[in-house]
Write a structure and sequence with these properties.
Layout lengths: L5 E4 L6 E7 L3 E6 L17 E3 L6 E7 L7 E3 L2 E8 L5 E12 L2 E6 L4 E4 L6 E7 L5 H4 L3
Antiparallel strand pairs: 1-2, 1-5, 2-3, 3-4, 5-6, 7-8, 7-11, 8-9, 9-10
Length: about 140
């Protein structure tokens, strides 16, 4: 079963909150940790609701990066993506932003006008940061 969850930056302290999206700017069951281990399912507890900046809300893609830490990848994350053929030769290398487009998650490299689907089985994907906390990561690319 597909895990559906969201993250957004708290309006109160700027920390990332993970949980269920309620409306456009509330995350219910939110927990403030860097990489969530558990999301509370009971959204009836109002003390677990957090008002977030709607511009920072992003959905979990259902995919983790291929690093040892297996970081969860959310919409708005910046990743390095390298796809390889079955012999290990590089087919495509992109640094881009995770976006939802035409029914699927893509890595969008606007600067170099490239994109790739996130779901390639042969790709190495490393999460670097996100467009809200680390926009300079996109400026650093060639």
């Amino acid at each position: 079963m597909r895990e559906i969850k969201f993250r957004g930056q708290s309006q109160h302290d700027g920390e990332w909150v993970y949980g269920n999206l309620v409306g456009t700017n509330l995350i219910a069951g939110g927990i403030k940790i860097k990489y969530p281990l558990e999301i509370w399912n009971d959204i009836r507890e109002l003390d677990k609701w957090e008002e977030v900046d709607p511009e920072t809300v992003g959905q979990y893609t259902g995919k983790n990066d291929t690093s040892d830490n297996k970081k969860e990848i959310y919409e708005g994350d910046i990743v390095d993506y390298e796809d390889q053929d079955i012999f290990g030769a590089s087919l495509k290398t992109i640094r881009g932003v995770i976006k939802f487009s035409e029914g699927g998650w893509i890595i969008d490299d606007e600067k170099n006008q490239q994109s790739a689907f996130l779901w390639s089985e042969t790709a190495e994907v490393r999460k670097l940061g996100n467009i809200y906390d680390n926009p300079e990561l996109l400026e650093d690319q060639q």
